[in-house]
Amino acid sequence: MFFFSFSFYSKKLDSHNLYYFLLFFLILYSLFFILILFSRATCEYFTKSYHKALASYQKILEIEPDNKDAQAGLNRVVRIIEGNMQSGNVDPEQRARAMADPEIKAILEDPYMQSVLREMQTDPAAFQGYMKQPDVAAKINKLIQSGILQVGSGPRK
User: Fold this and answer.
1) Do 85 and 95 share a domain, yes or no?
2) What is the dihedral of CA 88, 89, 92, 97, to 10 degrees?
3) Residue numbers in the chain where pLDDT is lower than 50
4) Which of 39, 86, 125, 146 is the most exposed place for a label (fewest CB within 10 A)?
């Protein structure tokens, strides 16, 4: 945590100087926040928590849309998720980490989502109908990104 004293500033802080002072610290805070988010996304990527890394990179791009490093990280994560979906191969470590995630556990334990997943297994056409519901679509996408749910015509493991 930063501790900052106004004692360095010998003049009285009037509203004009205070404005620039606060603006300076807001800029520093936003840069620091983006750096923290980027570090978090990188750690999530290397621990194979791709669904979390994807969300972190998207958050960085919401704050700073022109961030090329975040865009490259997002593209890298999306390629891995798409590759896992197409091949049907998901790293057991990735799946184990996803199953330990409280958010994924909550989705899988939700009775409505259990019925949705059961129906999607028996009637693949129901997938399109459920993807039109924003809350269900977000949960299904989270399961796909984490490697728990696989869709498509690829082999299953």
Assistant:
1) no
2) -60
3) 1, 10, 154-157
4) 125
